[in-house]
């Protein structure tokens, strides 16, 4: 295959790096479930992945990042999906559709979300990551073809969508994972629907 077929050398490197990060994050989650977050060390995660501690740090700066990396990846996918939506779709509906499509990915990250909610250090770091992701989502909304959203309006929509997602996730966790997350998300989006959308 040519480099063009693979998306170039940089594209291949990026895909490989993402695959290794995803594998490390999954191995970390297994250990966190078995031993607990505080009891698991970076050495434990690196050993489980068959690599050195130094190699681990090429992919994640901290063990917290091994969990939060899953959240980062979800955020990146949401931004990509927003850019792929029809240009004439209203921004609030665009966010609802993208987050609804992301439900399967969010569901597979449920263990990470539970761990984040139950670990104070992770919860604090997660809030910072969410702010970064919200800013990227607001920018993606403003960058859509034909968009006339002001920065304030885009930030407001991204923040409201995040609140809808958080409320649906908390209710889903309260039910022990038995509630229909997509239905909860639809309810939250209907309740928060802004006039400017």
From TrEMBL:
Domain HTH tetR-type intervals? 18-78
- Gene3D superfamilies in the record: Homeodomain-like (1.10.10.60), Tetracycline Repressor, domain 2 (1.10.357.10)
Alphabetized GO MF terms: DNA-binding transcription factor activity; transcription cis-regulatory region binding
DNA-binding annotation, residue ranges on this chain: 41-60
Superkingdom is: Bacteria
Keyword annotations of the record: DNA-binding, Transcription, Transcription regulation
Keyword DNA-binding set for record: yes
Q: Reply yes or no: does the keyword Transcription regulation apply.
A: yes
Q: Which PANTHER family match?
A: HTH-TYPE TRANSCRIPTIONAL REGULATOR RUTR (PTHR30055), MYCOFACTOCIN BIOSYNTHESIS TRANSCRIPTIONAL REGULATOR MFTR-RELATED (PTHR30055:SF238)
Q: What is this protein called?
A: AcrR family transcriptional regulator
């Amino acid at each position: 295959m040519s480099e063009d077929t693979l998306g170039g050398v940089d594209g291949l490197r990026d895909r490989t790096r993402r695959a290794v990060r995803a594998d490390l994050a999954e191995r970390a989650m297994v250990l966190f479930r078995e031993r607990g977050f505080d009891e698991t060390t970076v050495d434990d995660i690196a050993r489980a992945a068959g690599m050195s501690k130094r190699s681990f740090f090429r992919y994640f700066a901290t063990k917290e990042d091994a969990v939060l990396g899953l959240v980062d990846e979800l955020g990146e996918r949401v931004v990509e999906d927003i850019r792929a939506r029809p240009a004439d779709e209203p921004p609030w509906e665009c966010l609802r559709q993208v987050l609804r499509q992301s439900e399967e990915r969010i569901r597979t990250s449920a263990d990470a979300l539970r761990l984040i909610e139950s670990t104070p250090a992770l919860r604090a770091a997660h809030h910072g990551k969410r702010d970064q992701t919200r800013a990227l989502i607001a920018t993606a909304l403003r960058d859509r073809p034909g968009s006339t959203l002001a920065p304030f309006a885009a930030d407001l929509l991204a923040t409201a969508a995040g609140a809808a997602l958080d409320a649906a996730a908390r209710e889903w966790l309260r039910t022990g994972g038995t509630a229909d997350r997509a239905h909860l998300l639809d309810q939250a989006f209907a309740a928060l629907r802004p006039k400017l959308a």
